Structure formats: structure tokens, C-alpha cells
Amino acid sequence: MTGSNVSFVLGTRPEIIKLAPVIQECHRRGVDTHVIHTGQHYSDSLDAVFFRQLGLSPPDANLEVGSDDHGAQTGAMLAGIEEELHDIEPAVVFVQGDTNSTLAGALVGSKVDVDVAHVEAGLRSFDDDMPEETNRVIIDHISDHLFPPTEETAALLRNEGIPEDRITVTGNTVVDAVQTYDDRAASESRILSELGLTEGQFDLLTAHRVETVDDRDAFERILSGVSRASAQADQEVIYPIHPRAEDRLEEFGIAVPARIRLVEPLGFFDFLRLESTADVVFTDSGGVQEETSILGTPCVTLRYGTERPETAFVGANCVAGREPSAIVAAATQMRGKAGDWKTPFGDGTAAVQIVDTIPELPAREAVTPTE
Ligand code: UD1
Ligand code: UDP
């Protein structure tokens, strides 16, 4: 027995940003939404700031699971989400991406027999050491509606035997989000003056993945590589530091090179402003690889592979690995690129297409042409 409303399970910064367009599209069609926040992210700078900036109401439920080992964290989510879905009886539960919160939402949905819709399906790094890779594969195989962003990711799903009638290529909702908020970021953000920066005269760094920052050697190598690469162009590097990375810097006693300036994690508008005005962006983030390809900023990925190879195919991204000399070479290759490639992640209508695909949800209202 299902109702006419829909649930969203989310828990981390990128899920809030990339599900916001789908939540908002549901509201435009008069659909009741019920947002279940797992509490995986809870610091204001990784969580509430995005609800405020993206104009979302606070979550309907917050399970407050917090940080823990993967099993304990995911287990706590499962119990809480199950209780919520039993109460709500939604027509469909939306999850996004590849985090532990995404996995928990999909797993409970499939157990309690609610249709699971996976936004950003089909991504594969083929690196089983990444906790996210395990999550991606499981989530895709238990989802009823899969929304890969590109034809390449759809092909990966077909190769794994996922039935064609579950797959709809929509582009990535991150394009919808960037298109909606980029102008506001440009007009409202004061981050350049707050940090004393000039457009085009700084580099930007984000690094937070387990395989980058939880390994002392790897973390030191990428900091050294980025510092050397930016020194060649005489650029300062701004690094809004994720709490996981900050914890590891302290634990390992790593001395951050002087060229790299640490700042607090930023809200979406400030971060978009820096991403679109940086000379080069260095990152191990999935979302940042996508956004730089949309904004026309050259990106160097500090990993040995990527589940977003489309960004490299269009010339927006160079996957450098973690060796300092390779990072320097990649930055030399990318710096100064015109940024005129076409983003591979669609035209900003992903959320509309996603909601169109769910049979239980109302169709788009016919647009009345104006005189
Ligand atoms: C998680 C996701 C990762 C995603 C990232 C987005 C998994 C397995 N990982 O990684 O895929 O790219 O979110 O940012 O789901 N912490 C805080 N405040 C918070 C949250 C965390 O200080 O609000 C600190 C805690 O010390 C915690 C650490 O950050 O131990 C890591 O948090 P966790 O949620 O385990 O994973 P992320 O590294 O954030
Ligand atoms: N982001 C942000 N402030 C920051 C760093 C990142 O708003 O200081 C946004 C960024 O614009 C992107 C998302 O966070 O939309 C990426 O999240 P993250 O790198 O944490 O996770 P991933 O995409 O790797 O899963």
C-alpha cells in the first residue's frame, strides 16, 4: 500500500545539493515531499547552510546518526529509515549518489517494497577500495528507477544486466543546480573580497576522500604536488577544508605548504564563485569535477581514475594521480584552457525528466503559450 507523496533520503553535502532540484520540481507539481535526513553530515557548514541557501525547508525527520564506522553508521540509518517509511508509505523513495546514506535509503526502500529511484546511477570507478564503489553497485541493482547522467553510464548499467525499462538518461541534476544558482553566486557572494582574491589569480583545492587524506603519504604528496604546480604560475591555493581532512592533518602532524591557504568549508554560493573564477581547480571530489566542467574552469583530478571520465573526454579535466610531478604536468596542460567545452552532463532539465519518469507522479502541466 503506497501513498501519493514521495520520500527523499539524504545525509551529506552533495546529496542535498543534487536532490534540491528534484524536491523543488516535485513541489512545482504539487507533490507532497518527506525529506529524511540521516544526519551523516551535521556540521552547519556541511549541512544546514545548503538547506538555507537552496531554499529548502528543514528536513521532516533527522535521524542524527552522526559519524561512526561504516557498519554502525549504516546500521543506525537502516533502522531509522525503516520506521519512517513504514509511517509515510510513500509512492517512491529518491536517493542520490553513492554515500552510506544513499545505500541505507535504497536498501530500506527495497526491503519495505517501496519503489527506489536512484539519481546519478551507473557511475563506476572500478576501484573496489573506494567505499563508494561498493555502495554504487548495490544501490543500482536494488533500484527500480535508475537515472544515469550520460549514455556512457547507462551503457555500464546495461552491461551489468540491469533491465532497459529501469534506465532513463537524464543528465545530472548538478547542472540544474549550477544553472539556478550561478548568477546568484556571482551577485551575492562576497568571498573574493573577503579572502582578498582577484578573479583568475588563485587556484582552488578540495581533497576529502578516504584514499587521499587517510593515507599520510598520499596526503603529503598531493599537497606537495599542488603547491609546486601553483608555484610555477605564482598562484596562491585556497583549500576549503573538509572536517575529515582537517582531522587527518592534525593526526598526522602534516605541515601544509605555505602556498596553500586553509579556509573553512564554504556555502554553495561562495564555493561556486571560487570554482568559476579560479585559474585551475585541483580536486578529488566527484561533484567538483562535474561543476568545473559546467563552469568552464580547468580541473586536475588528484586520483588515479574517475567515475566521471566524460569530463576528461571533453577536455575539462586531467586525471593526474597523486605523484607531485604528474600533478605539476597536469596543471601545466590544463592552465589557460579556454573552457569552451560542452558539459557532458546535460542541459539542466534533469529534475524535470526524472519526475516525468515516475508513473505515480503528476505530469508536467501544459504550458499555456503567451500572446
Ligand atoms: C562522505 C561520503 C563521501 C562523500 C562525502 C561528501 C560515505 C562512505 N562517504 O564522506 O562519499 O564524498 O561524504 O562530503 O558515505 N565530520 C564532521 N562534521 C560533519 C560530518 C563529518 O566534522 O558534519 C567529520 C567527522 O570527523 C567524521 C569525518 O568528518 O568522522 C568523515 O565523515 P563521514 O560522513 O564518515 O564521511 P565523509 O568523509 O564526509
Ligand atoms: N562544496 C561546497 N563547499 C565547499 C566544498 C564543496 O559547497 O567548501 C560543494 C560543491 O560545490 C559540490 C559538492 O560540495 O556541489 C561536492 O561535495 P563533496 O566534494 O563533499 O563530495 P563528492 O561530490 O566528492 O561526493
From TrEMBL:
Question: Gene3D superfamilies recorded for this chain?
Answer: Glycogen Phosphorylase B
Q: What is its EC number?
A: 5.1.3.14
Where do the UDP-N-acetylglucosamine 2-epimerase domain residues begin and end? Answer: 25-358
CDD domains (alphabetical) = GTB_UDP-GlcNAc_2-Epimerase (cd03786)
User: What are the entry keywords?
Assistant: Isomerase, Plasmid
Q: Name one GO molecular function term.
A: UDP-N-acetylglucosamine 2-epimerase activity
| Highest rank taxon of the organism | Archaea
Recorded hits in Pfam families, A to Z, give:
Epimerase_2
Q: Which PANTHER family match?
A: UDP-N-ACETYLGLUCOSAMINE 2-EPIMERASE
Q: What name appears for this protein in its UniProt entry?
A: UDP-N-acetylglucosamine 2-epimerase
Highest classification ranks of the organism: Archaea, Methanobacteriati, Methanobacteriota, Stenosarchaea group, Halobacteria
Q: Which gene encodes it?
A: wecB
